[in-house]
């Protein structure tokens, strides 16, 4: 599983000063602890559990499971019989037992310089208790589902932790989703209450969130589903005389005027967050929950078919996010941590809220997603936003651990090194990437330009379903290979299977699966356990099937090759779109690339490539020929692109992910796009159709 010795060639090693303070400082120590975690999971995870409070201890097997559909119902149970409360552990326990009440929990940074707020653990607990009492006053009780549709403000964290405190199940919907998407998720999870905000700015665009929420609630009513209550936070709207946050609010008042803000109000359903908080007590006893009680439901994107409500439970998720955060980012009490994700996605759940707070960490929480800083730079007058804004925030808060997406890195690469070098960044110690496989060129740029070749890059592979990192380097223990997810995390046992379900040994490529559970893995698809079993366990009984392709090299390192449905069959050869994309972006003229398949009468599928060029580069026939040759040289003649299209902009969701479903439609010249409500900039579609290559 883990090689006996770490490779010495073609790898990068952590600096000695980082190794001196690291929790796990050598490959030998990592291998020994990994073997313990697999052979004696109760002992390994029992040590992690000692850091938390348990109202009652577990009585059964520490980790019990069945992964084989032929042997009965699929299940995973962790610490059965134990009772605890995750909100109590990450707030009360930190304050009273670890004396962290005055430590900053979040440095909140708004859309513009000067929009800021500091929140301590004690202040956060007080607000969580007040809002928990608000929820109780509206009849919310243990097991009830609560939908949350809010921008990146501290109150979003307050709302989710208030649910956890009283045993309610939060279902957060990313604030970029449409009314239809919100309605669908409310109905599927049977939520009785919605929490939202009046609105927010996305770059220079005003989003009237309450209008969208009301549309969703009307759609619910049209389908005979009544949501009894909607609590609205005043994030933008305020009285003229207000110069400080409203009572019950941790967010500062908006610095911009909002003349276009619409705030519809239905007195039969709507309640004001601030009014309710004024009347609420700041003391609320936690509701003690069973280990396997549900903590939250989070829906996958639903780009194909009905979204899946991934269900995570209390104890296992708490242990796993706490351990992965501490060890993957090598967290220490003096660190300032910044994850650029949105809490509406699993990364925000695990590595903005639960993981960092479980370790008593101080985090930066930024209202705007970083790739939007660059997107709006040409649309808003200086000084905001600035392409250097991310690094200005790093310097301002002395961020030491920084976690972002490859999409953001590739976009920043377009602007060169100058915006980065304008800032010091000397506080940075560890860099991390999440969301998709990172191509080696972007990895090297991140490592060399942002990290000045002194900060290890932890390229983490995981999913909404896994709850936390499953393949990842450890910064001081595992030598790094640019673009590789490296090795499994503790307790995780991967395998690579061929199409027949046979395990492949040594260097190999095939389906990535896992042979055993870990505490943080999902337990079911909410309301549809049959779909859970069919999606993740039916194809290869006895294994959790990730849906991703993977390659293991001669040194035992794992390389994610992309979703299996992103694998193309060209003349009988299986090609990874991620591999072709990586070959394209190695060319200095290419800032970003996306590859999809389009039907071919002879080969089955042909390669259709969209490329976004670096600033100042023109698309020419000579450049196109160079790109074709580059792919031939990197992968082979079989991977030579059939079509290459100049794409000044790619269709992306507001979280920065490329919508390949849309690109497949464009490549096939199909104008019926389906639901594109999550598209950040719909104007790119017409331009892409205009530039489209003729495939017929």
TrEMBL record:
Protein name: Acetyl-coenzyme A synthetase, cytoplasmic
Enzyme class: ligase
Gene3D superfamilies reported in the protein's UniProt record: 3.30.300.30, N-terminal domain of ligase-like
A Pfam family hit: AMP-binding
EC assignment: 6.2.1.1, 6.2.1.17
Catalytic reactions on record: propanoate + ATP + CoA = propanoyl-CoA + AMP + diphosphate; acetate + ATP + CoA = acetyl-CoA + AMP + diphosphate
Family listed: Belongs to the ATP-dependent AMP-binding enzyme family.
SUPFAM superfamilies the record matches: Acetyl-CoA synthetase-like
Segments forming domain AMP-binding enzyme C-terminal: 579-657
Claim: Kinase is one of the keywords in the record: no
Domain Acetyl-coenzyme A synthetase N-terminal positions: 31-89
InterPro entries (alphabetical): ACAS_N, AMP-bd_C, AMP-bd_C_sf, AMP-binding_CS, AMP-dep_synth/lig_dom, ANL_N_sf
Keyword annotations of the record: ATP-binding, Ligase, Lipid metabolism, Membrane, Nucleotide-binding, Transmembrane, Transmembrane helix
């Amino acid at each position: 599983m883990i090689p006996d010795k770490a490779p010495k060639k073609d790898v990068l090693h952590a600096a000695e000063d980082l190794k001196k303070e690291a929790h796990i400082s050598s490959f030998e120590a990592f291998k020994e602890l990994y073997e313990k975690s697999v052979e004696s999971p109760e002992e390994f995870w029992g040590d992690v559990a000692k850091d938390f409070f348990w109202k009652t201890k577990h009585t059964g097997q520490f980790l019990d499971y069945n992964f084989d559909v032929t042997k009965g119902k699929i299940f995973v149970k962790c610490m059965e019989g134990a009772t605890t409360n995750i909100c109590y552990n990450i707030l009360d326990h930190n304050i009273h037992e670890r004396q962290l009440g005055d430590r900053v929990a979040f440095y909140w940074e708004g859309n513009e310089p000067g929009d800021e707020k500091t929140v301590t653990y004690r202040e956060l607990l007080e607000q969580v208790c007040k809002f928990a009492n608000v929820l109780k006053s509206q009849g919310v009780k243990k097991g009830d589902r609560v939908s949350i549709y809010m921008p990146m403000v501290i109150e979003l964290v307050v709302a989710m932790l208030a649910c956890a405190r009283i045993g309610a199940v939060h279902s957060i919907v990313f604030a970029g989703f449409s009314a239809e998407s919100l309605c669908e998720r409310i109905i599927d999870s049977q939520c009785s209450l919605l929490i939202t905000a009046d609105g927010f700015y996305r770059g220079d665009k005003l989003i009237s969130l309450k209008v969208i929420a009301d549309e969703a609630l009307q759609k619910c009513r049209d389908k005979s589903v009544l949501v009894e209550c909607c609590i609205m936070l005043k994030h933008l709207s305020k009285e003229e005389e207000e110069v400080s946050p409203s009572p019950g609010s941790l967010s500062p008042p908006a610095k911009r005027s909002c003349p276009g803000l619409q705030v519809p109000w239905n007195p039969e359903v709507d309640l004001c967050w601030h009014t309710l908080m004024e009347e609420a007590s700041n003391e609320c006893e936690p509701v003690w929950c069973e280990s396997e009680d549900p903590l939250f439901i989070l829906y996958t994107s639903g780009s194909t078919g009905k979204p899946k409500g991934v269900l995570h439970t209390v104890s296992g998720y708490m242990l796993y996010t706490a351990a992965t955060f501490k060890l993957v980012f090598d967290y220490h009490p003096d660190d300032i941590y910044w994850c650029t994700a949105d809490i509406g996605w699993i990364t925000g759940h695990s590595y903005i809220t639960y993981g960092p707070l479980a370790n008593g960490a101080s985090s930066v929480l930024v209202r705007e997603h970083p790739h939007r800083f660059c997107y709006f730079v040409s649309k808003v007058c200086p000084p905001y936003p600035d392409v250097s804004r991310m690094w200005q925030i790093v310097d301002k808060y002395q961020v030491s651990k920084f976690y972002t997406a490859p999409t953001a890195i590739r976009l920043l690469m377009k602007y060169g090194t100058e915006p980065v070098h304008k800032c010091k960044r000397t506080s940075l110690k560890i860099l991390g990437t999440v969301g998709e496989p990172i191509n080696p060129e972007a990895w090297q740029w991140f490592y060399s330009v942002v990290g000045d070749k002194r900060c290890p890059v932890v390229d983490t592979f995981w999913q909404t379903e896994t709850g936390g990192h499953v393949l990842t380097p450890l910064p001081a223990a595992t030598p790094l290979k640019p673009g590789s997810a490296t090795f499994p995390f503790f307790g995780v046992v991967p395998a690579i299977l061929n199409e027949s379900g046979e395990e492949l040994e040594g260097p190999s490529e095939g389906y990535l699966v896992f042979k055993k559970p870990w505490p943080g893995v999902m337990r079911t698809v909410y309301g549809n356990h049959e779909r859970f079993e069919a999606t993740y366990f039916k194809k290869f009984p006895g294994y959790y099937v990730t849906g991703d392709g993977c390659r293991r090299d001669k040194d035992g390192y794992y390389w994610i090759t992309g979703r299996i449905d992103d694998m193309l069959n060209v003349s009988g050869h299986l090609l990874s779109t991620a591999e072709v994309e990586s070959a394209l972006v190695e060319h200095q003229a290419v800032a970003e690339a996306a590859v999809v398949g389009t039907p071919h009468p002879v080969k089955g599928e042909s390669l259709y490539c969209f490329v976004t060029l670096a600033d100042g580069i023109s698309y020419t026939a000579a450049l196109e020929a160079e790109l074709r040759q580059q792919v031939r040289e990197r992968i082979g003649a079989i991977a030579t692109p059939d079509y290459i299209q100049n794409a000044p902009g790619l269709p992306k969701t507001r979280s920065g992910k490329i919508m390949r479903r849309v690109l497949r439609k464009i490549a096939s010249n199909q104008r019926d796009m389906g639901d594109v409500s999550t598209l950040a900039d719909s104007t790119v579609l017409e331009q892409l159709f205009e530039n489209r290559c003729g495939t017929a």
